[in-house]
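Sample 1 of the test manifest.
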Amino acid sequence: MLRVEKVYKSFGGILALFGVSFEVEANTITGLIGPNGSGKSTLFNIISGFYSKDRGEIYFQGKKLRNIEPYKIALMGVGRTFQISEAPEKMTVLENLLLAPKNQTGESVLNVFLHPLRIKNESKQHLEKAYEILHLVQLYDLMNEYAGNLSGGQKKLLSLARILMSDPLLLLLDEPTAGVNPTLIKDLIVAIKNLRDEKGVTILVVEHNMKVISEICDRVIVLDFGKKLAEGTPEEIKRNEKVLEAYLSGSTKREFFHENT
Amino acid sequence: MTFTQVVINSIVRASELALLSLGLTIVYDILRFANFAHTEFAVVGVYVALFLNLTLGLPIVPAAVIASIATGLFSIAVDRAIFKKMRSTSGIIVMVTSLGLAIALRNTIRAIYGATAQNYSVPLQKPIMTEFFRITPLQIWIIATGAAAMVLFHLLLHHTKLGKAMRAASDDPDLAQASGIATEKIITYVWFIAITFASLGGILIGMETYILPYMGFAIIVPVFCATIMGGIGNPYGAMLGALVLGFAENFGLYINFGKILSLGGLLGQNKGLFIPTGYKPAISFVILIVVLLIRPRGILGKKKEG
Amino acid sequence: MGLINFLVYLAIMMGIYGILSLSLNLQYGFTGLANFGQVAFFCLGAYASTILVLVFHMPFIVGLFGGMAVAALFGFVIAIPTADLKEDYWAIVTLAAAEIVRIFFLNEDWVAGPDPYIGGAFGIGGIPQPLRSLFSPHTYPFFYLALVLVCLFATYIIINTLTASPFGRVIKSIREGDNLPQALGKDVKRFRLKVMALGGGFGGVAGCLWAHFHGFVSPEQFMPLETFIVWAMVIVGGKANNKGAIFGAVVIVIFYNCTRFLKDYIPIEEVTLASLRMVAIGILIVVAMLFMKEGLVKEKRIKESIVLKKACSE
């Protein structure tokens, strides 16, 4: 579904990505891990079209993603969340969700006046869906709250909820569980796996929480200083010495080893 | 009008604009907003100098210097009263605020002095005439002042502690604040330098042409254009931008496009086609659009990531 | 009689400026487009309508739609190269563009026809008032007021419907940054272009109404201060609130016109008074930005109840 080939990216002389290549198969959940500054966010930004790459190619469903504007890539089916929540502060949670579905009839000026009934029907459908998703991320009670008033963790959930509304084919999740309370994380894990199993969504997830990675990922890719360090199943990665050395330290190491607790 | 004359006029204009665009760019950079009241501050300086010169009878040079410094200090007061409260507000809101300030300043001057043109009381100028051009001592002064100010600024930026702090604050404001470089202090100096220079530029324009309450508005587009062309935050860019614009405006009116078009066979011989003088503001506008389309960072601008 | 006429005049001004205010609010309040050249739409609408009616002898209605179309086209065209610029660059570009429009009409007197004393700095006079012959001189102003109110109402309905629709949602999201709408598949540039065309169109309508009411247009009527007055209306009235925009127009028009009478009570010159009025406007903008960013009428929070009503009501 997604193929990244020898991508290079530098920022004013500092190399952020150095020949990164990997493939993400359809209907899988792939984890992308690595210490801070290893290039994970940069990679996301490049895949979703927000940054340009210096060298290399990216293919989504066989189509080359080169110099395409981010909105077009989104319309192709690539959905993403942002690490620092990009929630329009002056719109309510509900409005945020209703914003998400693609190609809404009501987004065209003429249609607003020529096809009001069609728009009404679409609205009803979107509302139903929004309610479902809001229940899932437990933001239902906050639906009329301005996004700007939410806590960090809630904003994360909003980000996730919003992108779910748009039915993406490939979902790029940027630290979905950061700042979220542990009981909710369990529900999120179920929901994410559900997306793969029942909705056929392919997921690439950046995470620092190793427990989550171990639980949901089919494969894991490890980046370090902009290079792909290792690739494999969560178990393989856990045993990979290079990974352990370069990446894990202190508490994260403990988590990895004691992940059953 | 000879070619050399146009060159001289261009350099004079460039000197005036540079004093203004330099100030705009440093405020834009350190305070992170487009100050639409920048040229109005300059006009405040112009009128303070007018007051000192005409009403109090001071000769023009001390009047100009005192007025510029006074206006520089005035801008610090305005910053404290208004912009300090908006340090973390979004740029667009501060920009609109500066617009309101501009309206207030401009019209206060107009309320006091009325809408008629005025002139400084300057000793009579005897132009130097040669075969190719004519230049007045005033124009020489303008070029000299402009150049001196640029050199002074350069020395300030690279050979003083303040300059070093300004460069640091410009490159990375968060880091600068964290490493103990007192940003508020820098802001004070930035306003002072910017507005003192701007006032001086305005006074020179006033000396060369005439003084009107709305003269600030008349130059706002060229000044912004020069600043943006040079790249925001780049004082040398601002100088370069002023130079380019000074030449563009003067040559733009001088060039006979008819001749060019007739060479290409598009127009009959001897048909003159000039940009009408009324459209002088259009020249900077067109240049601005072109620059923004091709290189929004400006010619020497800073790299923005992504 | 004098008082009634004055009140009708005030109401007409409130209507015309109300349309301008709604238009600017759509651009700035809802979409975040800081248009410092709003007067350009006003000017183009006025001149286009005048030329169509006076020089080409078209009926008023053609002038109205013509003015609207020219202004909308200008908005669209100016936005094509500039829509993605940062808001501060955009502000200076629109400011400059409006000045160029004014200078154009100042210099190009040929647009008004062959008479060398018409057009350019002289302005264009003798603009016919629509349906004038049907009314007596004292009922005509009421008719014109009705005409203006109809236009204001139509503008309000159109803009309000749009801002409450999915289109409105998208532009509100654009207001706070391009990244999110892009990530959700919205062609941000296209939306901006549409907003500018709409804003322009409505500005043009206001211009046409102005021209036909005054019977005379000249470049002096379209100075940048007009833009700033409209900004004061949007800021004071309430950003992103359509009723607020109209309210702002009402407040500022009252302020602007009633201070004219001070001249009769205080020995003050016309120029000074006009300048002081503008000083007050400037201070108002500064104060509003410092203490009352939302304006007097806050932006409506779109609660679920509102969404439900729109989705399920008849």
